[in-house]
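U., I forgot to send this yesterday:
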Amino acid sequence: MVNSTNNISNQTKIKAQLVFWAFVFLMGVVIYKTISIQFFYEDNTVYLNTENGEKLPTRIVKKKPRRGQILDINHIPLVTSISYYDIYMDPTVIKPKLFNSEISKLSIKLAEIFPEKTAREYEIYIRKARRRGNRYLLIKKNATNIERKQLKTFPIFNKGRFKGGLIDNIEHIIRKRPFGEMARRTLGYVRKIDSKTLKVGIEGAYDEYLRGVDGEEIEQKISTGWKKTGTIIREPEEGATVVTTIDKEIQEVAHKELLNQLKLQEARNGCVVVMEVKTGKIKAISNLFRGNDGNYFESYNQAIGIKEVPGSTFKLASLMALLEDKKVNISDKVNANGRYTFYGKTLHDSKEGGYGNITIQEAFEKSSNVFSKIINDAYKNEPQQFIHRLESFGIVDSLGIELKGEPQPTLHRPGTKGWSGLSLPWMAIGYEVQLTPLQILAFYNAVANNGKFMKPLFVQSIIKDNKVLKEIKPVVLKEKICSDQTLKDLHLCLKGVVKRGTGQALKSAYFDISGKTGTAQILNQDKRYGAPGERKYQASFVGFFPSENPIYSVIVVITAPNKNIYGAKVSGTVFSAIANKVYASRLEFHKPINLKKKTINNLPITKEGNATDFKTITNHLKIPNTINTSDEWVKVNSSGTKLTAKKIRFNKGTVPNVKGMTAKDAIYLLEKEGLVVRITGYGKVVHQSILPGTEIKKGVIINLTLK
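Result:
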């Protein structure tokens, strides 16, 4: 009995001791946390003394810089950074006399600019926070810079940070593309995913220039965590500006024409690239994929990153090899009977029964698959010679562009796993070889450029503080890909495709076009070729214009069209539309008609816009004017001997009238009011989908048409 009692007593003591030491441990943790927060919180924790002697824990953190802009070749912003500010208030620093006399006036002003609360509600809100000792009272999230500047003029706030309690330096920089989906994937982005940084497109390739240099600012420890105080120790250094080779005007045309054709053909995806022949500069690039909702988006860069069988556009390389190795002349006759059999596999021409006895030039113009027989007969005993010749053209090498994602072309070689008896005839017409659209275009561009193979360029310079940090000059990958005689023959054949062959629908009344159509069967999304009626094709057209002294080369590729499959009708129409619109709008295609005429001192035609901008420009150009910069927005009259301006008034809370304005001014005014802007066309605003004077509902989309 005694032993049993002693055991119970010992167990009770052990339990009591465990509870005691557990309590001591917990108290130790609490005390340690308290001390570490007050005295040892991070290496860069410092303390600020308030007027009542209280110490506030603060720390120094990095302040992200404004990222540099990405501009088109004419310095129009394609990607820019817009600042928004979180506005806070520290009502505890305001002297009682100032607070009591001015708080009502401040509340009225806040209600005018931020009508989410009434003036009375703002006053109650601020007074309650002051009584509770709240040093970080939220006033407004994501305020614009204009609203931020207005706040600094308000009662109390006009006393500054330490006397008026205004905390307005909590900046959020948002990356924006003014033209939406246009070239979105090529412009790219930089994103943090877990511990890795994903760098895409121009944003990724030139991140080291665009990102700038971090600054330093102070954060304050409050009950809910660390908050920015708005105190800057060292200002961040803004990133450099990247000037691309893209021409926004050509880009808009290419994007629109591709989109229209994809919708018409109900195609899976497509791309278009416009390159300047002499320099290799990319003037436009568009890649559109159909989403689940049926709309098209720039979700991947097909032109750079997806290699596919090129089909008949590869016949140019086959013909070049034949001519360079002196296997044929373009005047030689061949029997294009429409059926070409190799090891039990038969190729057919698109024309039933073939084309009969025709020249090799005619076979190229009509895109006959007799090229499979010509190449097989010429190289079947020495296939490596054909491969070596293709290698000498540079068509089997990657281009080494600055943007990530370019794959190495696929080309099987004798003795490798992918090589068979079918390889030569199949390669001759663009199968058993895979290239990206950009790689095909670069090859055709070399033919247009008298044999000089240029590296495609997306960026021409990097600018910082109005100084050129880096100038990117044209790069020659190969000085000469073939002989002058071969080039002469190829030009005749490419021009003939549009004059007499498969590209006749592309004829222009104003200039000659040279190029090649292509239609290739491709794998379905299940990685298989479909049965007849279910097969998917890729339609292409690649070429250059004008045929004599070419300025631009263009490739159009449309994947899995549902209405038509042939390159001329599907992709060629896009090429033709781009060529005609670019020709009509570019001065380099037209001879001046007024060289001997005297210039007339007329006042310039103007649009509605910002008065300060007008004043700056007119003064710089020494144009007489009476524009008053105290008026923020004006309508300028060009009649008479001076530019005169009339103030434009906008009613608070209603949609402004932006007709006659440039896209930049219209977007600024509308987004300032909380509307989401979508634009089509270029020039000045001629139509807005929401009538002026309509009550504004934030987040609503407004469509602007420019001409």
